[in-house]
Amino acid sequence: MGFTRRAAMIGAIAATTAILPNWAVAQSNFPTKPITLIVPAAAGGPTDTVARLIAESMTKTLGQTVIVENVGGAGGTIGMGRVAKSAPDGYTIAVWHIAHATAPALYENLKYNVVQDFDHLGRITDVPMTLVSKESLPTKNLKELLHWIRTDKEKVTYGHAGIGSAAHLCMLILMNDLRVQLKGISYRGTGPAMNDLLGGQFDIMCDQTTNTTNQIKDGKIKGYAVTTKTKVNSVPNLPPLNTELKGFEVSAWHAMWAPKGLPKDVSAKLVAALQAALKDPKVVERFASLGTEPVDPKQVTPDALRTHLSIEVQRWGDVIKRAGVKGN
Amino acid sequence: MDLVANLAQGFATAATPSNLLLCFVGCFIGTLVGVLPGVGPIATIAMLMPLTYKFDPTGAIIMLAGIYYGAQYGGSTTAILINVPGESSSVVTALDGHAMAKTGRAGAALGIAAIGSFAAGTVATVFIALLGVPMTKLALLFGPADYFALMVLGLALAVMLARGPVLKALIMIVVGVLLSTIGQDAETSDERLTLGIESLADGIDFAVLAMGVFGVAEIIRNLESVEKRDVLKAKIGKLLPTIAELRQSFWPIARGTGLGSILGILPGNGATLAPFASYTLEKKLADDPTRFGKGAIEGVAGPESANNAGAQTSFVPLLTLGIPPNAVMALLVGAMTIHGVIPGPQVMTKNSELFWGLIASMWVGNLMLLVINLPLIGLWVRLLKVPYRILFPSIILFCCIGIYSINNNPDDVLAIGAASIFGYVIIKLGFEPAPMLLGFVLGKLMEEKLRQALGISRGSFYVFLERPIALALLIGAVIIVFVAVLPMVRKRREEAFQE
Q: Between these two residues, B39 and A238, which has the higher pLDDT value?
């Protein structure tokens, strides 16, 4: 019968994937089944784009599919919480960013320790951010925009990808420097937030170039400045924010984590695959067209990431405490 | 012209060998589950979704969509042959379709159902293509307040369209919305209503709820009744309707297609209303209404076309606004998200290949369904003879394997058990689970949009009155609820569902 044969086939496939994990760890011929890569933000956002490119390349290197699963919400703590709870067998990994460093300051009752409960695999990118606004805003340049924000501070609304997201942190520093409090609107990721910025539902957003470059070029939103110390190649006519606000510097970085306690060989294989991905011409090329680039290869190691993370946890902890922001 | 170029791109995408194969597989599985009682497209799509991880997004969505509209075809086969509508949308088809079958015209009924569906599918494909671009532009005018109002309207419609008492439908929707609030708060990550149970922290899995309530609970209910399926003994007869029958069916097909296309776009599962509306309309327009229920071919042609057109145009709100109009579309949201496509206005610009490829594949799929259904009718008839005692354990087994393979989490299998008991209880109490699932699906989105709208307005509820779109939609919702509870309409509505 058509039904039973087809169904048996589906069953067989499902059963195979169900039985394999136990052998996998013991025999260390990792990986023997698909790997889940958790992205703690909505699909279509910048982190998601970066993660999917890496996943594609790692799939080639590891010979098993790396499936991206989006677990958004609560500034990424829902997704990272799930990773921390997962079995440290290498079949659950995560790509997340700067928000991982800010979570302890923002979420008092965080159920995991961002440094100690994870194996740090390596940093991936250092992404410049851009300050953008809806197309209908009359301000023409950075100076005018900042002036408008200062004078009309009661009216300004900004979108962000959840408390503690890079988009939110960037605005925190901006508000801190301008001595204003603006109204933030929380989205599941900057992808959905971009939809509403395109529709002019809120005024401004600070978002990674990965998400804004094309929209700025198409004239659908206005770009004002980049958040790095120097200009960025993909948006050459935007000045750095520090030309107006001294010392302003934010960049969103991405990195890869796994639950604490991976077997050494598994960890090594994952790190090697990540390093290979960052040298993959296809990844480099796509990164470039998205306005980002892989970090210095020396940064793509567990130790470098651990150090970097500890420094960022300290830095953002101070900023957030000063701003008096809380996630819950 | 843009439309032609877009459709050409779509057909080029849909016609690649792998996409053709996936489309065929989807339509085939869809027909299969449409024919089988107890498994609908919801449970099937939820089960097969993990298998599509390895495909590219376009292929995956093409296959899953094929299951959905394929099931509409399969459902009518059982409705006509054994008076058991395999899908709720085929309830109306059973009336005159089975009557035709009893008088030896099963072939003609099956034939006209397929022809009508194909015609409707063709028109609906063009309709979606025409509507896609303007709808996407419209979507940019929609702010969070408008989305919220649109979803309220959708839920109000779902109340009106649900079978049974209005109050019960309303309760089900509220239960669905409440269930969606379980889990961590998306802004603050505080746990809500989890009763301290760790596996509830991530919220209730939609697939679990859908499979439990629609798959397993339905099976338990089927097992209650003694197995008695009067598989047609009489001959099926010629599949091709006569010229006279075709002429009789032409306008019903055209009207059904129009009705279905428009109703399908409505949020809140307007597509389910389409066959009922078409049947009522045809009966009204008929010279001799008494023929209906006794084998009138218009009573098959109209509703079948309406049904298929509605099934297809219900993709419009999903692809352009990002709002799933029914439970199947909600699953497709999940599938698209897994593949990195965010349903909404950006699908058309960012994933134009997927958008137009999917639309074109629907037409291709309809063509395939003609082939799958008409010449292979014998296969489906034989399938109907498989005893239920063999069918149902396999269905349950595959549900369990399917859900386990999604997250490799044994808790999910237990959760299906809990969901099915819950589903069985509510079915026994006379509640319909479909509105609950829609409430569950829209609940999360509604909360998000409500909070965004109030954030932008700085806490002022006037935002819902000041924005013309939101206001119009909310007024529409109020009118619909009001109309649904009017005694007169309520009586009519009950009569309509009883027919």
A: A238
Q: What six digits make up the tokens of B413? A: 């299998």
Which residues lie below 8 Å from residue B468, measured CB to CB, with a gap of 6+? Answer: none
Residue of A nearest to B202 (CA): A78
Token pair of B454, please? 């109030």
Structure tokens at B362: 């629907």
Side chain identity at A60, as an amino acid letter? K
Inter-chain touch A3–B36, beta carbons under 8 Å: yes
- Interchain contact, A201 vs B143, CB within 8 Å: yes
Closest CA to B109 of B202, B248, B214, B223: B248
CA distance linking residue B122 with residue B116, whole number of Å: 10
Q: What are phi and psi of A96, to 5 degrees?
A: -145, 180
pLDDT (tens digit per residue) in A260-319: 988 889 999 999 999 998 888 888 887 776 667 788 888 888 988 998 899 889 888 888
Which residue from B184, B394, B455 is facing A185, i.e. has the nearest CB?
A: B455
Most A CBs within 10 Å, among B180, B341, B342, to test the A interface = B342
Beta carbons of B400 and B194 less than 8 angstroms apart: no
Q: Rg (Cα) of chain B, in Å, rounded? A: 22
State which residue of chain B sits closest to A59, comparing Cα positions.
B54
Sign of CA dihedral A56, A59, A65, A69: negative
Write out pLDDT tens, residues B261-291. Answer: 988 887 766 777 788 889 888 888 888 888 8
User: Hey, are the CB atoms on A3 and B398 less than 8 Å from each other?
Assistant: no
How far from chain centre, in Å, is Cα B93?
16
Nearest-angstrom CA–CA distance, A151 and A138: 14
Structure tokens at B337: 């998200």
Q: Could you give the angle at the alpha carbon of B39 between the alpha carbons of B35 and B40, nearest 5°? A: 80
Q: Is the pTM of this model over 0.90?
A: no
Nearest-Cα distance to chain B for A238, in Å, is 24
Question: Who among A107, A157, A185 is closest to B189 (CB)?
Answer: A107
CA distance B118 to chain A (A): 24
Q: List the structure tokens of B198.
A: 């760790």
**Rounded Cα distance, A320 and A326, in Å:** 8
Provide the residue ranges of all domains of chain B, joining segments of one domain with +. Answer: 2-498
Rounded distance between C-alpha atoms, residue A318 and residue B262, angstroms: 56
In this prediction, residue B449 has a pLDDT band, given cuts at 50, 70 and 90, of: very high
Residues 30-69 of B with CB under 8 A from A: 32, 36, 47-48, 50-51, 53-54
DSSP A98: T
pLDDT tens for each residue of A29-74: 888 888 999 988 766 667 887 888 899 899 988 888 888 887 776 7
Answer yes or no: are the C-beta atoms of A167 and A227 closer than 8 Å. no
Contacts of A20 (CB under 8 A, 6+ apart): A32, A33
Q: How buried is B350 (Cβ within 10 angstroms: 0-12 exposed, 13-18 middle, 19+ buried)?
A: middle
Higher per-residue confidence, B94 vs A188: B94
**Is A324 within 8 Å of chain B by CB?**
no
Across the range A23-30, mean pLDDT stands at 56
CB-CB neighbors (< 8 A) of B339 in chain A? 43
Q: What are chain A's domains?
A: 2-127+253-323 (3.40.190.150), 128-243 (3.40.190.10)
Instruction: Please report the pLDDT score of residue A7 as a whole number.
Output: 47
Average pLDDT, chain A: 83
The DSSP secondary-structure symbol of A240 reads B
